[in-house]
């Protein structure tokens, strides 16, 4: 996919160059300095997504771009609701990014479960969850990458999130509820990768 960038009122707009390069520029500008650890995680997720991108032919760039941008909503200047999938998707919508990219960011890693706990289900419903193998692959990339970019199993990743946030945090409640769906998406992606002869360990 080819897109490009121009700027309107300090907001990067999409036009005709490389989608992954544009995504990297946007994410790095928002995260690299403000949230360096988050940026390391994002780069690790993008690397994971690249490993299975061959499964998606013409959508390979879309998967990697979504991986690079999945946490952009954590950027302090974008954190309007405090729910990063929603804040990131709303920001990306202002850039005229492809609708599927925006929707993938909005619904990454079972976001609808956390939206329910935050009372933001109606707001998240502005965006469509495509429920495809590509979406599963994005979830897989996020849920097998730790906060410092390290590779983890999905069970290690879920345990790490619970430990990092503590037993009473909303995110811990969310991850417990979402675990069956997250594990299923990871397992489906790993099965597809094995069937295609791709190594993802």
From TrEMBL:
Keyword Hydrolase on entry: yes
GO MF terms held by the record: hydrolase activity
One Pfam family in the UniProt entry: HD
Residue span(s) of domain HD: 39-122
CDD domains noted in UniProt: HDc (cd00077)
Domain of life of the source: Bacteria
Transit peptide found in the keyword field: no
Keywords of the record: Hydrolase
InterPro entries: HD/PDEase_dom, HD_domain, HDIG_dom
Protein name as annotated: Metal-dependent phosphohydrolase, HD subdomain protein
Organism listed in the record: Gandjariella thermophila
């Amino acid at each position: 996919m080819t897109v490009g960038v121009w700027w309107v009122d300090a907001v990067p707009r999409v036009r005709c160059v490389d989608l992954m390069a544009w995504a990297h520029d946007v994410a790095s500008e928002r995260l690299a300095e403000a949230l360096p650890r988050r940026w390391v995680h994002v780069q690790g997720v993008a690397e994971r997504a690249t490993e299975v991108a061959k499964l998606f032919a013409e959508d390979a760039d879309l998967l990697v771009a979504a991986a690079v941008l999945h946490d952009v909503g954590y950027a302090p200047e974008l954190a309007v609701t405090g729910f990063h999938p929603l804040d990131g998707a709303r920001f990306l919508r202002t850039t005229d990014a492809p609708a599927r990219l925006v929707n993938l960011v909005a619904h990454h890693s079972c976001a609808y479960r956390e939206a329910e706990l935050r009372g933001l289900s109606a707001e998240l419903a502005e965006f469509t969850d495509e429920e495809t193998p590509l979406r599963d692959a994005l979830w897989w990339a996020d849920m097998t990458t730790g906060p410092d970019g390290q590779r983890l199993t999905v069970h290690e990743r879920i345990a790490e999130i619970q430990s990092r946030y503590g037993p009473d945090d909303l995110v811990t409640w969310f991850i417990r509820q979402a675990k069956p769906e997250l594990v299923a998406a990871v397992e489906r992606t790993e099965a597809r990768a094995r069937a295609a002869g791709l190594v993802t360990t």
